[in-house]
Amino acid sequence: MSARVRVEDRECPLSTAMSYVGEWWTMLILHDCFDGYSRFDQFQANIGLSSSMLTARLKTLVDNGILTKRAYQERPVRYEYVLTDFGRSLRPILVAMAAWRNEQLAPSERAMVLVDSETGREVEPVTIDPVSGVSVSDPRFAFRSGPAAGEQMRARYARPRARDV
Amino acid sequence: MSARVRVEDRECPLSTAMSYVGEWWTMLILHDCFDGYSRFDQFQANIGLSSSMLTARLKTLVDNGILTKRAYQERPVRYEYVLTDFGRSLRPILVAMAAWRNEQLAPSERAMVLVDSETGREVEPVTIDPVSGVSVSDPRFAFRSGPAAGEQMRARYARPRARDV
DNA sequence: CAGTATCCTGTCCGATACTG
DNA sequence: CAGTATCGGACAGGATACTG
Fold it and tell me: Where do the HTH hxlR-type domain residues begin and end (chains A, B) (predicted)?
């Protein structure tokens, strides 16, 4: 999965991520795709947005390389929208969001869960440092400017931190 | 309905998460908070949005229980905004987003990185199932309706999946 | 079925000005 | 410094109508 910066080259990786997945409808369409839905009317039925908006959103997703549009039949020609590898790489973000919400609910209160489909076991995902195995919520982890930091990013991390979070 | 939907209205945990973190500025303010910034002018300098919008966003964040506003001095009274425990629980989402973008870049191209502040080592976070240790990108993991699923959510997952993703 | 096209309303958001 | 108040343009997004 290669780099694909369509939107606007902000140096902050968080801003870049937000420019891809920061829109409400975009995330819901992605959710549909991960669940195996691929067609215009399925999206519309599941999500309930207007056809003009859906058209616009699908176009950005295709332009951004997250979905591909392909004909699944001729005469009349019909299209479906499927995830690219690049699009699939967004899955951990989507899963982390759903997991965040489910953590606040008792298991019996959850409307949607992630499961291991081989066993049916419910999964409660965590985001960790793979080297230490420690959750990224641990205060020992902090952002710093990287090698490609510009002026603003360097300034941001130049001063000592006000407090640990 | 737009992103301004009341949080309780949606049973889908992903939608709920999006209603909290789905806005561009909200995420950037959170990023500032995680980096130890807490004051109005710092947010404004770092993010560069208008004071009226910043006021509005801070208000939503406080109303949603993600930040607390507290006076750090009297005469004149000055406020700062700090993360609640609830706010801190959003960290994995933010980290997962930044990590997603950094994965597309060579290490030397990264403007911002997560580090273990004890050792300075760069961290490349992953979102996994803690039981098996397998990444949530593995196709064996899939969403299903949970115990509290309503009609629509049950219907969504009732039919066999069109394809594995 | 898979969209386009058009209209219309509400909201986002910067700009500007003002306050204690 | 930490906001509040107001204006106005741009655009998100619903509703509706239409098309091959």
Answer: 12-109
